[in-house]
Amino acid sequence: MKLITTIAELRARLSDKHAIAFVPTMGNLHEGHLKLMRLAREHGSCVVASIFVNPLQFGPIEDFDKYPRTLEADCARLQGLADVVFAPSVSEMYPAQQTVFVEPPPIANELCGASRPGHFRGMATVVLKLLNIVQPHVALFGKKYYQQLHIIRQMVMQMNLPVRILGGETVRAADGLALSSRNQYLSAEERGKAVFMYQTLQGAQQAILQGERDFERLEKLAVEALRARGWAVDYVAVRNQSDLQPAGPVQGNPAQHELVILAAARLGNTRLLDNVEVCLAG
User: Fold this and answer.
1) Which CATH class is domain 181-276?
2) Does domain 2-168 have CATH number 3.40.50.2000?
3) Sequence-separated contacts (24+) of 257-260 with Cβ below 8 Å
């Protein structure tokens, strides 16, 4: 495995590779990232991981400065999984002030975008830069960040980028909590409570599978349940998987039979995300 920190060296290293699978990360790796790396190996003969904490996607009061940087430990975990690790500095990725940005679709202003203005603009911009630098045939992202994955797919499709985007299933702890680098911010007491978000989403999922179609009511009940347990809720939303628009009455359109329930909420000072897909019989 080769650790590379400059764009020039990376391009030289990859110049003769013909089947590159790429996993972009911000480091502080956990089993969810490693599962994506194993999946990447199934789709490429050269597997590249990037480790870069992107300042463009953090708001002024968010945790960019305290976001954990664990490069040495990350590289140890990637041994045997990645052929190349690209870990550029901020000045390498942004040698001048970035004044050209990707303008994401309107959905970027909803859900997580409503409380994190500019987040998806910064995310899409760095992902486009990374895809241009690495030029992979396949790039992999986790489904836990469902809205992010949707926006990346739209960007790749609409910009005619020659890369296939694959979504990896959410990896969970034994009790069901979605793995996240931010889970380490939870106190022991909060960690015990954190799985309730997933349980709440599972309850809504079962209600839909059993015939409930008043999605607004389900959203309201889920929000109330989380708040009753001490969560500060950003949103719980039932959306169509295809476009992340609010789910309406399920009729003849097959796309309307594929739903996703998304949630974001704070437990203490830690903001957690989760989602569950719901596929109804056609």
Assistant:
1) alpha beta
2) no
3) 257/281, 257/282, 259/208, 260/146
Query: Structure tokens of 132?
Result: 């241009």
Sorting pLDDT into bands at 50, 70 and 90, what band is 255?
low
| Ranges in the chain annotated CATH 3.40.50.620 | 2-168
Q: For the chain, what is the mean pLDDT?
A: 95
pLDDT at 251: 59
Q: Which residues are catalytic?
A: 33
Q: Which amino acid is at 156?
A: V
Burial class (CB in 10 A: 0-12, 13-18, 19+), 142: buried
**pLDDT at 227 > cutoff 80:** yes
The reply to whether the predicted model has a pTM over 0.90 is yes
Give the DSSP letter of residue 152: H
Q: Is 111 left (phi over 0), alpha (psi -120 to 50) or beta?
A: left
Residue 104 contacts residue 121 (beta carbons within 8 Å): yes
Residue among 277, 250, 249, 245 nearest 261 (CA): 277
From residue 233, how far is each of 223, 228, 249, 267 by CA, in Å?
7, 11, 25, 9
